[in-house]
Amino acid sequence: MLSLHIVALLVAGAQAAVLTLTSPRFIVSSSSGSHLRSEPLSLVYPASTPVSLAKDDVLKLTFQVVDKESGKGVQPHQTFLRFYDKISGEEGIQPVRVTNGGKAKFELNLARPPLSLPPTSSNAPLQVSLLIGSSTHSPLALTLFDLVIPASHPAPVHPDEASFHPLPEIHHTFRPEQKLPPRPISVIASAVVLAPWVVLLGLWAQVAPRAVHVLSPSIFPFILTLGAFESLLVWYWVDLKLGQVLSYGGVLALVTVFAGKQALSKIGDRRVGRK
Amino acid sequence: MAPPKSSPAASNVVHTLWKAYSGQTSDRLKFIDAFLVFLMLSGIAQFLYCVLVTDYPFNAFLAGFSSNVGQFVLTASLRSQVNPENKNEFKEVSPERYMTLYCGRS
User: Fold this and answer.
1) First to last CA, chain B
2) Which residues are in the Ribophorin II third domain (chain A) (predicted)?
């Protein structure tokens, strides 16, 4: 609230002297030097209309610190201007040089704003107050006026700034589950794949050589073991594990080797004998 | 393959070829040829299924197709050894040996 003003007198002791200002005054001038506004400041009420500065305007603030009783100029030990943004809570403290005679002159050039000026937004004025501290006098705090200045540039973005945000959640995309084709197509395809068997059996029915000796005791065990191998592979397909197949197959292979040796040597004997 | 083209017919070469084959090839070789034709047809059918319909159980296709091809190669080599016309090429290998190798490899 603009009407609110604070004159805080923190009485350090009963005998502490009191400071006051004489002829406090501010001047707003444009960059070309023409005065835009020049008003005396009231110590009791802050200025009713806020002081507004354009981009290159200059604000000059002059006052003299005097002892209230004697009227002599005093050089306080500490003199500060405080710029406070009520909305953001940011504040900036700017020391003000005061001469031996208590005279002070502060200049705020917006073309070269001091570092102590807090960052400003477009809609919130800065509350400007004067803080004076002295070891021989009571401290003094005066709310002077509200200051409207152009919004500051946004803070420069740090090059690594983008790394300090949570990344978007990772969504894994998987290849869709492969599907079997529709049942009719599967049936047709099975028929097509099985059709060569019909061709095979048909052709064999025509040209099968007479297998005369297959059932003879020397050859038949060999045929039997070969058949057993086929059955073992079917069994593997249906149920067995690889280790079992290898062990069974190993045993079966021994038997097959003996049976095959027997059968083939028998056939060989017959062939040689026939010749 | 084996059948010689002894009668070059001008009109129908294929027919002549077939006649020569069926007339001059022994039943044993025809028996093996039938098996070769079967393996070829079966492999083609599986390959077409894989290409045209789906390769979903791809390991099943690999197993079926590669066993077809492998068996075809083995059977074709058996046929070339059994063929009486190639007897001179395989003099030192006995027919029993082919059979042993064939059964063992299969």
Assistant:
1) 23
2) 46-145
Which pLDDT belongs to residue A268? 78
Q: Please tell me the predicted confidence (pLDDT) of residue A247.
A: 92
Distance from CA of B12 to the nearest CA of A (A): 24
CB atoms within 10 A of CB A148: 17
**Domain annotation covers residue B25:** yes
* Predicted pLDDT of residue A170: 92
Do A199 and B35 lie within an 8 Å CB cutoff?
no
Question: A227 to chain B: which residues are within 8 Å by CB?
Answer: none
Where exactly are the structural domains of chain A?
Answer: 19-151, 211-275
Residue B36 lies in a domain: yes
* Residue B94 binned pLDDT confidence (cut-offs 50, 70, 90): low
Q: Is residue B61 part of a domain?
A: yes
Confidence of residue B102 (pLDDT cuts 50, 70, 90): low
The distance of B41 to chain A (nearest Cα, Å) reads 6
Is B16 in a helix, a strand, or coil? helix
B51-92 tens-digit pLDDT: 888 877 888 889 889 888 988 988 888 888 878 777 777 666
Domain limits at B24? 13-105
- Kindly provide the residue ranges of all beta strands, DSSP E only, lying in A160-265, ordered along the sequence: none
CA distances from A272 to A267, A275, B96 (A): 9, 5, 11
Q: Which tokens is A46 given?
A: 């802050």
Question: Which positions in chain A touch B30 (Cβ < 8 Å)?
Answer: 203, 206-207
Mean pLDDT of chain B: 78
Closest to A265 measured CA to CA, from B84, B14, B97: B97
In a domain, B2, yes or no: no
| Low-confidence residues in chain A, pLDDT < 50 | 1-14, 275
Contact B54 A195 (CB under 8 A): no
Number of domains in chain B: 1
* Interface predicted TM-score of the whole assembly (ipTM), two decimals: 0.71
What Rg value do the Cα atoms of chain A yield, rounded? 53
Percent of chain A with pLDDT strictly greater than 70: 92
Rounded CA gap, A181 and A186, in Å?
Answer: 6
> In CATH, what number does A19-151 get?
2.60.40.10
**Tokens 């001047």 sit on residue:** A27
